[in-house]
């Protein structure tokens, strides 16, 4: 008779892939997930390099999503790969944040029709 697998005791600290939700305060669509056992809300829009810079200047944390992992974008990660090759970059959600919507990367999930070279 096979024994049941024991649950991993460290799953509490493992990041949970963000799921779509709605902010209770501003009613905006967001992504919600756990990172280091802390519930974190992310903006649903992908960021460009300028958008990531603006988010950092506003004091917001940025995260690199590569399914099924979520990585924080710290100084070392940004210096090593200013542009991410796989996945997308998102900022943490802050209600009523305006003026930086033009910095959203609209091509993050689309492939170009022609080679840019």
Walk me through what this model shows.
18% of the residues are buried. A hairpin with a 2-residue loop joins strand 4 and strand 5. The protein is 13% helix and 26% strand. The N and C termini lie far apart (61 Å). The strands form two sheets. A three-stranded antiparallel sheet has the order 1-2-3, with no helix packed on it. It has one domain. The protein has 117 residues and is α+β, with helices and mostly antiparallel strands.
Keywords, separated by commas or semicolons:
117 residues, alpha+beta, 3-stranded antiparallel sheet, 2 helices, 13% helix, 26% strand, globular
Topology:
Elements: E1 19-22, E2 29-35, E3 38-43, H1 49-57, E4 62-66, E5 69-72, H2 75-80, E6 88-91
Query: Which H/E pattern describes the elements?
Result: EEEHEEHE
- The best one-word shape is globular
SS field, number of helical segments: 2
- Tell me the Rg in angstroms: 17 Å
Please summarize the sheet with the most strands. 3 strands, antiparallel
Side-by-side strand order of the widest sheet = 1-2-3
Global mean pLDDT: 78
Distance between the termini: 61 Å
Number of strands: 6
Low-confidence stretches: none
Helix content percent band: 10-25%
Number of domains: 1
* Sheet/helix structural class: alpha+beta
Q: What percentage of amino acids are in beta strands?
A: 25-35%
């Amino acid at each position: 008779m096979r024994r049941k697998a024991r649950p991993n005791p460290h799953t509490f600290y493992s990041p949970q892939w963000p799921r779509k939700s709605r902010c209770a305060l501003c009613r905006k669509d967001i992504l919600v997930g756990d990172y280091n056992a802390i519930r974190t809300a992310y903006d649903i829009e992908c960021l460009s390099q300028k958008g990531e810079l603006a988010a950092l200047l506003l004091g917001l944390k940025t995260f690199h999503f590569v399914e099924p992992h979520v990585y924080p974008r710290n100084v070392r990660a940004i210096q090593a790969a200013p542009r991410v090759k796989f996945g997308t970059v998102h900022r943490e959600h802050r209600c009523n944040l305006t003026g930086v919507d033009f910095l959203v990367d609209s091509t993050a999930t689309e492939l170009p029709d022609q080679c840019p070279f």
